[in-house]
Backbone:
């Protein structure tokens, strides 16, 4: 497809926001678009791609490892980052960096992270993909107020989240406890404040959390320097170097949401991987394990290598697959993860291999580049059997949830089952230990995420799941007009959890709901 017609498609997708405001059921009128969202363009000259070396977020050192518990401390603060070369960009970061530091944990060993909020707004941390007790799961109203106490004197404390009697609100510091009774997987942590997750994550509040286990260690997979975590995001930059974002209230204190034109989602024109624009990584002609995360607010990518080589998927959101699955391209929606092995040994030394985005155009059509610089000894392979994955088939309850446009706070917004998010409402009460089928129905693109559980995709559009739905997941990419069934066992902990669309703008404008395991 040409750049022109792609732009027209993006325009149509954005136009959906306008149609929906008028209460018209738009999806049937729309051709399938790359993403649900509207493009924000940068007001600053953009650098040429593939110049900046791929950064790897630093791995955080625990402050102690006593008594079988790994303790970490993270300060959330405002800082300046050099994302575009020579440009100073104000960010909000965990430890003042974007992405935040990576945490590496052992399955079954408790990790406690003490977060200190030195930002000017309340925050709450969620470990996405973590099987976490409710009090540490980062429910959207369990806020940590800024440490300096100034926030309470401001206007912001009146915002809707504070009206939740079950919210646990503290000032300055919160310990989040992660028992991590789950298998090896790439998780990520990010801000989850009611009404303001999109802009807070966009400013930088996101980091990776790897869980390791013995099963994974025993496999001959690429490791060490040949394992690369890749947090793929999109951003737009203002003339002064700051990140452009269309918040109604740029202080992120009281008025939630974005300008109506962006209500379908914010798409940036710069692809930022691990905090660098279209970076380049030197690799040897060997197998590499790429731990992919789409950390974007609304953008979906269809990833492929150019010149072409297979993407061998070995894991999904929640860990290793039973057996590898070969793809020529992989669609990744916000918050989804793929664990992929690429054999750069298929290329002659000297090849420049581009990771392209087949859903992008212009600056968003490429993600990063690998430069094959030498050939080393190969000691890794992808075994035919990777993990033991229990197949869930029998459910006691089936529930259905429709994800559609609607009203939120009297403006254009998004709903689940016709209702915008209200913390005091409970949409489902699964019994602890029960297996349930949840059927999701979408009007536009909605990447649907469930906290606490791992699920398996049972069907998509009334047919068998697509190859990339394989394995244990926590986020599933729904396309316009599509229905997807997932099956999950609700075990772990009793309490209050969220499920929501992970298009961050949809999430902030109502598309979130609560389930309670009982
Ligand atoms: Cu990644 Cu409820 O979030
Ligand atoms: Cu989550
Ligand atoms: Cu959505």
Residues:
């Amino acid at each position: 497809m040409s750049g022109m017609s792609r732009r027209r498609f993006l325009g149509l997708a954005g136009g959906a926001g306008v149609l929906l405001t008028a209460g018209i059921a738009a999806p049937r009128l729309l051709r399938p678009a790359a993403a649900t969202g509207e493009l924000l363009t940068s007001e600053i000259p953009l650098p040429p791609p593939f110049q900046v070396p791929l950064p790897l977020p630093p791995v955080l050192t625990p402050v102690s490892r006593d008594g079988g518990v790994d303790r970490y401390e993270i300060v959330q603060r405002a800082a300046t980052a050099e994302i575009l070369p020579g440009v100073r960009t104000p960010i909000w970061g965990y430890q003042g960096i974007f992405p935040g530091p990576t945490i590496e944990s052992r399955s079954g060993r408790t990790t406690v992270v003490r977060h200190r909020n030195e930002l000017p707004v309340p925050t709450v941390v969620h470990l996405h993909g973590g099987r976490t007790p409710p009090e540490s799961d980062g429910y959207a109203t369990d806020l940590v107020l800024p440490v300096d106490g100034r926030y309470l004197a401001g206007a912001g404390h009146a915002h809707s989240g504070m009206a939740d009697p079950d919210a646990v609100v503290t000032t300055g510091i919160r310990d989040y406890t992660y028992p991590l009774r789950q298998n090896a997987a790439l998780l990520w942590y990010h801000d989850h404040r009611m009404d303001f997750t999109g802009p807070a994550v966009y400013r930088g509040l996101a980091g990776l959390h790897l869980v390791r286990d013995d099963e994974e260690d025993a496999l001959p997979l690429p490791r060490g320097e040949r394992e690369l975590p890749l947090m793929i995001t999109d951003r737009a930059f203002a003339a002064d170097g700051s990140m452009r974002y269309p918040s109604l209230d740029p202080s992120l204190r009281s008025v939630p949401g974005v300008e109506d034109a962006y209500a379908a989602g914010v798409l940036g024109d710069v692809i930022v991987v691990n905090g660098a624009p279209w970076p380049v990584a030197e690799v040897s002609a060997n197998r590499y394990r790429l731990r992919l995360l789409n950390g974007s607010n609304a953008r979906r990518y269809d990833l492929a290598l150019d010149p072409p080589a297979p993407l061998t998927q070995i894991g999904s959101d929640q860990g290793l697959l039973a057996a590898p699955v070969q793809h020529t391209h992989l669609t990744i929606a916000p918050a989804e993860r793929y664990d992929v092995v690429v054999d750069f040994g298929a290329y002659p030394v000297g090849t420049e291999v581009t990771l392209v985005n087949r859903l992008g155009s212009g600056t968003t059509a490429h993600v990063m580049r690998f430069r094959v610089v030498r050939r080393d000894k190969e000691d890794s392979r992808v075994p035919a059997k990777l993990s033991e994955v229990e197949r869930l088939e029998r459910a006691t309850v089936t529930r259905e949830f429709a994800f559609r446009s609607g009203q939120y706070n009297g403006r254009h917004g998004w709903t689940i089952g016709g209702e915008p998010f209200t913390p005091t409402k409970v949409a489902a009460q699964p019994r602890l230990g029960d297996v349930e089928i949840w059927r999701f129905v979408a009007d536009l693109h909605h990447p649907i995420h469930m906290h606490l559980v791992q699920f398996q995709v049972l069907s998509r559009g009334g047919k068998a799941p697509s190859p990339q739905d394989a394995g244990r997941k926590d986020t599933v990419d729904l396309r316009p007009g599509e229905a997807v069934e997932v099956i999950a066992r609700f075990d772990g902990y009793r309490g209050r959890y969220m499920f929501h669309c992970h298009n961050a703008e949809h999430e902030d404008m109502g598309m979130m709901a609560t389930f309670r395991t009982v």
